[in-house]
C-alpha cells in the first residue's frame, strides 16, 4: 500500500517530513533526492527525523550512530542493526512511500 507523506512543495532540500503511519516513516530530501526510512533508531528510542543529516546519512540524536539513507545500514556502534528503508514515489505532486501489508 502507499502512504501519503506530504506535498513535494512542503519538503524542500535539507528538510525532513514524518508520516505517522503505522509505521512511522521519515522522508529526507537530500539535494532533491528523496529517501524514506523507519524513523526509530535501532539502538534506543530516538526519532531519526530529529537527527542531523550528513551527506547521505542521518545521525541519531542520542548516541551518534550514522544510518545510510539509501540502505538503512548503520556505519558502526552503538547501533548494529539496520533500519527499514522504503520506496519513495512522487504521484500527482504528492510524496508517497510504499509500505508492505502485514
Q: Helix proportion of residues, in percent?
A: under 10%
Main β-sheet, spatial strand arrangement: 2-3-4-8
Uncertain ranges: none
Instruction: Spell the H/E element sequence.
Output: EEEEEEEEEE
Q: Indicate the mean pLDDT.
A: 94
Description:
The chain has a single domain, classed as Rieske [2Fe-2S] iron-sulphur domain (Rieske Iron-sulfur Protein), CATH 2.102.10. It is built from no helices and ten strands. The strands form three sheets. A four-stranded antiparallel beta sheet has the order 2-3-4-8, with no helix packed on it. The protein has a three-stranded antiparallel beta sheet with strand order 1-10-9, with no helix packed on it. It is an all-beta fold and 102 residues long. It is globular, with a radius of gyration of 13 Å. A hairpin with a 2-residue loop joins strand 5 and strand 6. Helices cover 0% and strands 41% of the residues.
Notable features of this structure?
10 strands, mainly beta, 4-stranded antiparallel sheet, 102 residues, single chain, Rieske Iron-sulfur Protein, globular, 3-stranded antiparallel sheet
Secondary structure layout:
Blueprint: E1 2-7, E2 16-19, E3 25-30, E4 33-38, E5 52-54, E6 57-59, E7 66-68, E8 85-86, E9 88-91, E10 94-98
Antiparallel strand pairs: 1-10, 2-3, 3-4, 4-8, 5-6, 6-7, 9-10
Short précis:
0% of the residues lie in helices and 41% in strands. The chain is mostly beta strands and 102 residues long.
